[in-house]
Model the fold of this input.
Amino acid sequence: MAAPLTAKLAHSVSLSPQEMAVLAELQVPVRPARRHREIVTEGRKYAELFVLLEGMAIRYRVSPDGRRQVLNIVLPGDLIGFPACFFQSALFSVSALTDTYLSSVPLSRLLGLFERHPRLAALLLWQFSCEAAMYAEQLTHIGRRSALERVAHFLLELLIRLEAVGLAEERSYSMPLTQELMGDLLGLSMTHVNRSLRQLRGDGLVSIDGRSVVIEDFEGLAAIADFERSYINRFRINDALI
Amino acid sequence: MAAPLTAKLAHSVSLSPQEMAVLAELQVPVRPARRHREIVTEGRKYAELFVLLEGMAIRYRVSPDGRRQVLNIVLPGDLIGFPACFFQSALFSVSALTDTYLSSVPLSRLLGLFERHPRLAALLLWQFSCEAAMYAEQLTHIGRRSALERVAHFLLELLIRLEAVGLAEERSYSMPLTQELMGDLLGLSMTHVNRSLRQLRGDGLVSIDGRSVVIEDFEGLAAIADFERSYINRFRINDALI
DNA sequence: CGGTACATTGAAGGGGCTCAATCCACGTGG
DNA sequence: CCACGTGGATTGAGCCCCTTCAATGTACCG
Done:
């Protein structure tokens, strides 16, 4: 099993051998969670964070009347359990999209890190910030964009995020979500997600065959979605921190 | 000038005199920001957090084509600048709704706190979690609820939040947002916000006269909005932290 | 007194939803 | 090996919620 959290952080800062050792300790022991299994359950109490080592998951919330909102997708190296473990009970659930491997970090150990490894603490704060910022981004998309814009943006954002963790080729990847889940993520009905995808396909911007997605015209999609090339850079860490 | 951050945290945990002293230091010196002035500007770099001591503000984002999304409302005692100060440049702006007073906390001082006052650090992490959780909540509202539900929920949520900081009576408060801003917050057009408010007024659920809002039928609104009585408790701190 | 900010209301159109049927791939058990 | 069930994708028809555009009212302020 790789150490995706280490890899992710090493992209942004250079880690000392000691820091890498501490991070490595956060990523063991490894434990599996199978597809469709809940990793975090809304309403339950947690005193730990999880590191997603392999596979994918979604954060989501189901309202009493059954409407489901997917908040975002969790990729390898991401932390699971912020903000959940800071509350008396988790405010939303996390469910494995594929078979996954996780490690668990007790809250006490996390807080200990903050005392003893201030630089790592800053990096973890930054990771928490990324999660919060992604919710805020998603809010602007759902609140103010048309269905076609949302779908186009989603396809590009996923390409960039998957690429960053080595799960996509230059212009293609395997779609982890069903159209129904895409709808729940984008605030659309499944039917309309399908129609939007059809239009993008019809316009030659993307090819979809089963799970396989090929971005045929990045610029064309980016123009529809108002997608920034430098998407990933928006989340760059403040160098005053390190 | 009061110390609203101290007051807010003291609601959840009992603070030692020393901790209260440290918190007090975070809330000086005081500096004003007038109505409509930007406190944080998207794209700029920050190496500090702000504590909102008095007045209100909004977090928001404007897309290149002019569409604006208000993320949420900032009340006294709230921290401004998470997640902004952890990034190379702020991802969204914060603007004063009223004349406000702020204090500024350099990032280095914040990180120092994490080393020297672990319990306060945990409380600050919890505050960050609250902000992230509120974005996630807002996502589920905008993504999956009708206009009437959103407006009703907003009116109740604001009542509870304002009450918690002493800015509302038991069932009335002064509305800090224009209908246009409500629209930008709820992902609706201003026109439709107006119509939704009219319907709620027509049904006798709420009275609105100028800025003054009176919740005439809490239960009726709560039924429409699927609002939980214990809204504020959802964000209760994990007692394993303290 | 004119200007600006905000609220209000109407009319008309469309984007996205609901409901419903169909199709396809796949796995599973008889 | 086939029948069947299941999960997912696709497509059509109709409609309604919400948007856009537009006009008007009203309070406040320089």
